């Protein structure tokens, strides 16, 4: 499956953990079945929301492989494979391909702050070496490097580079890439609060944190947006707006893991250096869950 055929609500799935920090594969199965039943259009495994930074290589590939096996072809699986070392990102991309992922999501190298030329060489080296559709990921708030639109469009010429997850907080940036990019180059929103606007502007989907807790509503909103139904899209997105806000009250995935635990779907565990949601934020997240109908009435 080509990545540019993957559209809609694409959940940036959390990685459930046992109390001792080991991966909870039973919990992972529970989440995947829930998403398939709710109509989620694709699953992103072991991205930032999946705590990729604290999973070692073997765990990382094992979670991708388990996600592919559990999804069983019912929804596409996009594997998170980014790293700030090109050699490491290459190894993760090869592992994702071996695990059976449909595509991979590769973030701009963080901390070492490559130049625009460095970004081009990094991504082209991976795309040249690994025959798996690649989605670029630009999130300067996390990485301290911003991939310029012209760099993105240059990379879009590579046959294995098929899309970008844009998380700059700018709908204008997304629209610029949509308008100037090849017709078969997909732009995905990496900001939940801009997902509806991105899709209404010609984007192909939203790689979403909110979809973790409201998968059905997110899928319905994405379907309406991709169909060009602005009124329905905006109505559904208004119900989701408190979640778009509150799930980022502290560093992602701290709030969304608390929310899923509150919903009874996973345990509360995060790996250090992430810590549980501060008490002061819990009422706001719970209220947002209630507004979106995510909690069963008492």
TrEMBL record:
The active site is at 137 (proton donor/acceptor), 165 (schiff-base intermediate with substrate). Signal peptide: none annotated. It comes from the Bacteria. It comes from Guyparkeria halophila. The keyword RNA-binding does not apply. The keyword Lyase applies. CDD domains: DHDPS (cd00950). Pyruvate binds at residues 49, 207. One of its GO terms (cellular component) is cytosol. This is 4-hydroxy-tetrahydrodipicolinate synthase. It catalyses: L-aspartate 4-semialdehyde + pyruvate = (2S,4S)-4-hydroxy-2,3,4,5-tetrahydrodipicolinate + H2O + H(+). Pathway: Amino-acid biosynthesis; L-lysine biosynthesis via DAP pathway; (S)-tetrahydrodipicolinate from L-aspartate: step 3/4. Its EC number is 4.3.3.7. GO terms for molecular function: 4-hydroxy-tetrahydrodipicolinate synthase activity. The record marks 48, 111 as: Part of a proton relay during catalysis. The record marks 53, 84, 88, 110 as: L-lysine inhibitor binding. Its main location: cytoplasm. One of its GO terms (biological process) is diaminopimelate biosynthetic process. Belongs to the DapA family. InterPro entries: Aldolase_TIM, DapA, DapA-like, Schiff_base-form_aldolases_AS, Schiff_base-form_aldolases_CS. Keywords: Amino-acid biosynthesis, Cytoplasm, Diaminopimelate biosynthesis, Lyase, Lysine biosynthesis, Schiff base.
